Amino acid sequence: MDLSFTAEEMTFRGEIRDFVAKNLPAPIREKLSSGRHPSRDDIVTWTRILHGRGWSVPHWPVEWGGTGWTPVQLSIFNDEIQAGHAPESLAFGTSMVGPVIYTFGTQAQKARFLPHIADLTEWWCQGFSEPGAGSDLAGLRTAAKLDGDSWVINGQKTWTTLAQYADWIFVLARTDASVKKQEGISFFLCDMKTPGVTVRPIQTIDGGFEVNEVFFDNVRIPAENIVGKENKGWDYAKFLLSNERNGIARVGVSKARLAKIRRLAELPTYGDKPKMDDPVFRMKLAAVEVELKALEMTQMRVISAAGKVEKGKPNPMSSVLKIKGSELQQATTELLMDVVGPYALPFEPEREDGERWNEPSIGPDWASTIAPTYFNTRKVSIYGGSNEIQRSIIAKAILGL
Amino acid sequence: MDFDLTEEQSLVADNLTRLLKDRYGFEQRKAYKKDPLGFSEALWSQYAEMGLLGAAFSEQDGGYGGGAVERMLIAEAFGRSLALEPYMASVVLAGGAVKHAGSAEQRASLLGSVATGELRLALAHAERAAGWNPFDVATTATRDGSGFALNGEKGLVINGDSAQKLIVLARTAGGRRERAGLGLFVIDAGATGVLRRGYETQDGQRAAEIGFVNARVEDVLGDSEGAAGAVAATLDEAIAALCAEGVGAMSEATEITTEYLKTRKQFGTPIGSFQALQHRASDMIVALEQARSMMYYATMMASETDADARSRAMSAAKAQIGRSAKFIGQQATQLHGGIAMTYEYKLGHLFKRMTMIEMSYGDADYHLQKLGGGPSLFAA
User: Fold this and answer.
1) For chain A, what is the domain count?
2) N or C: which end of chain B has fewer CB within 10 A?
């Protein structure tokens, strides 16, 4: 047992950190470190920079642009991207539909789609949730019928993140209503420009526009745009969701936020002492740091065991990572609220568009994003399979209840 | 980074697990506890024969050259079985003090006999007024001819009632809470001027309050004024081992509870089919995995030479284990219902051991306070 990183792993970490420091455009770094969201262009710009280095889809098979890195190296890479305030890759392409296509897709689909995911010349979004199918995803009602050489899709998806930028959407739709609900679902690839696709934004409580409704009204897509076998879509969806959960602990994001909390808590913002001098605050901060350190180790345990379990088989430990990771992301936003204090109040959603906003901020210049971040981060225990769904997975798959 | 054990380490863990499975059922434990020593002397000899007692001492000191990983494996297995034998007292605590403070000669003679099981030691470091501060020492050792005279009172000396020799932390110089001026002394437990009051602890283990009245002692481990560093290193190793013992107890409590959820029926169905109970049990798994991770972290950091970094790591681990233990103990009790409240059932004793681990060497709040305001645990 040797729980320290090897010299090679340390060198690797240094190489990634160095690359991020030298190549991430400063305005993007400043925007993300202040708690604002990257724009579409920010994500595209950074993905192209990574793509130029051969690092835009490091976890993919080498023939499609992957790096062949070990699970530990991949984890170090993600950690450094998050800690360096670089935009994360667009998961809908790189971690969700990409792996589904290279695992279950046809050769033609791989050649058609994977290169554009890797360099982000095509933006993907996820058509899973529906108004009537949230945690009970298999209860979805959007339907697809084969008509000649086309599939015709009708229905509605919701909570579709960044659909406003998307070129393509992957869609779960019912193709057989006569069987058990999990056994009549198929997995489709749909061009967002197809007639009958409509996107309607949903404003979230932080004031932002991240998520959308997507409507399908007699949308005709080519017959070859089904992935894998008809009515096997639920298997591909489960594969995709367990990949989604692997990165969901977001230890690097919480680490970066803790570093920011320490920096802000040292500022003499209110009263006669910085927040860091408050022993109650210090103890709360220490408690979150301890849990995050533990989670980092838990993640390393899962990663180092990953080489030993069957590839593509979902690991229920990812549910442990999801629950604790989301709770800690939320805990860090609560600590930020402790630090910002009274100037949590001013609501300035226009500052989100920082490049064009010239008005001086109402409170301290770092304060306006904190309450929105707190509100926005409540989503993390809801999405990706709510934490209650994860508890039920643990009960079944780990405890055998 | 790898979490794999060496072949020798796996062998240690497997052999011990097999022995305890065979010899440490909960009913058998009840019998061992009735022995005046408070544990099974026969099993103690068997651990020695298996090489467990010397596993973490160097070969020059009469051991087998292992370290923190061996202590972790042994303590975790003992935690699962609620073993009563004085492994922590004799090997980890007192043995650790000898290892860190003693001369080569002292180490070879004392640790060699600890490893064979012939000599049982106990570490008398804590005092009633000190709380969890190990350097708050009022017991004095004053020069007396060729040796020293010990005066004062030591408390909560784990297995101090049955140890043959005591390692006593006493002040030779300096003020009450100073780190300088502390020495570690080796004294026969039956020596003149040593008064022991043995008792049972909440978790079925044994301890003693020990008074020293002009007790003469010749043997000092190393520097009679400079033992603080050795004490800190020893207690940090003890915290790491205690974390592993806690994880063993938590794992066992979680398994017993899961089994109960599968077999206990109410409303005509196993109670484990109820979502309210499933989710409590799942949260136990999350707490257990977090604790297990910090057990590894503590093991990795137990031999760190930067004492501040090591101490911070132990605080982080002990805080996590304390919080997880409290959560798991309380949930396991609730999920069992009434049966958990009975003295004859193992679960309550696991809960009590986990709780006493939390109350030893600093509870979670104590360690979080120590960490608070200090450097980040994620320093680059």
Assistant:
1) 3
2) C
